[in-house]
Amino acid sequence: MQSMQPTTEILEKVRQNSARNKDEVFTRLYRYMLRPDIYYLAYKNLYANNGAGTKGVNNDTADGFGVEKIEKIINALTDDSYSPKPVRRTYIRKANGKKRPLGIPTFTDKLVQEALRMILEAVYEPVFLDCSHGFRPKTSCHTALKELKRWNGTRWFVEGDIKGCFDHIDHATLVGVIGSKIKDARLIKLVYKFLKAGYMENWRFNKTYSGTPQGGIVSPLFANIYLHELDKFVAQMAKDFDKPRERRISDEYEVLSRKLKNIRQRLKSAEGEKRVTPHAYAVNRSKKRFFLLRHTYSPQLRIRVQ
């Protein structure tokens, strides 16, 4: 009996296809959520994280991982009965003294999110722009600083901050963006379930109408997919800004051009002494030339969203 091809190899092919054709639309990706080996890899990735043992709204932790748990997850995903639990909301203090909300999923939901993240990352990572350095493999603030060193001669920097980015992501817009790239109704439905899972705070359930919870495994990737649309918009804006302006010829230039053309025609038809000194419009080519020099200073404008 032929052994099943590892999901990692399949996702690598998906990644390669996405890299070759940036506009490719993918289908039938949900079936990879039903393969047992993707959950062993998900467990490996999660267990290396210090937060793997952090409890969500119940006692479901990494300690209960095994074949039985994987089968239960796959069965629930197969018959569409899987429903993510609301995340447990807690708060972490920021450097400025304010507090940032953090959503902690159950371990089962972390496993499913990690599997979903690997599939979505295979599709989207090759199409993200090089200017994006947040929450991506092999990128960090250090790679962003290295990129800045290549910006020679830049005079202006425009820095922007999207206030509460994770909290204000519009669900319908995000689902629509993913749906334009991935034509798989079951996968899109799973994405929607995670967005609408809600959160528990002080043991009270709260619905989520927008945003993707910080602390969720797939949340950073959701944010990058959402902000990729902004990256493309700004990249096009920069391209249009850097494009040289259309060359405009002044009225004075037109007058001089006609005079110069007339002189050249007279020089061609002149004979003898007239060829050397043709009346009032004489031009000594060894001493005089007519040049048009137009210099447009266009400072490089770049926008960074963090």
The low-confidence runs, each spanning 5 or more residues with pLDDT under 50, are 278-306
Strand element count? 8
Task: Give the strand line-up of the largest sheet.
Answer: 3-2-6-7
**What radius of gyration results from the CA coordinates?**
31 Å
Distance between the termini: 51 Å
Q: How would you sum up the global shape?
A: elongated
Largest sheet: 4 strands, mixed
Helix segment count? 10
Query: What share of residues are in beta strands?
Result: 5-15%
What is the H-and-E element order?
A: HEHHEEHHEHEHEEHHHE
Q: What's the overall average pLDDT, rounded?
A: 83
Question: How do the strands and helices of this protein lay out in sequence?
Answer:
Elements: H1 7-20, E1 26-27, H2 36-47, H3 67-78, E2 87-93, E3 99-104, H4 107-124, H5 141-148, E4 158-160, H6 171-181, E5 182-183, H7 185-195, E6 199-201, E7 204-206, H8 219-242, H9 251-269, H10 273-276, E8 303-305
Parallel strand pairs: 1-5, 2-6, 4-8
Antiparallel strand pairs: 2-3, 6-7
Helix pairs in contact: 1-4, 2-4, 6-7
Report on this structure.
It is a single chain. By secondary structure, this protein is α/β, with parallel strands linked by helices. Strand 2 (87-93) and strand 3 form a beta hairpin. 19% of the residues are buried. Helix 1 (7-20) runs parallel beside helix 4 (107-124). The protein has helices at 7-20, 36-47, 67-78, 107-124, 141-148, 171-181, 185-195, 219-242, 251-269, 273-276, and strands spanning 26-27, 87-93, 99-104, 158-160, 182-183, 199-201, 204-206, 303-305. It has a 4-stranded mixed sheet with strand order 3-2-6-7, with no helix packed on it. A two-stranded parallel ribbon has the order 1-5. A two-stranded parallel sheet has the order 4-8. The protein contains 10 helices and 8 strands.
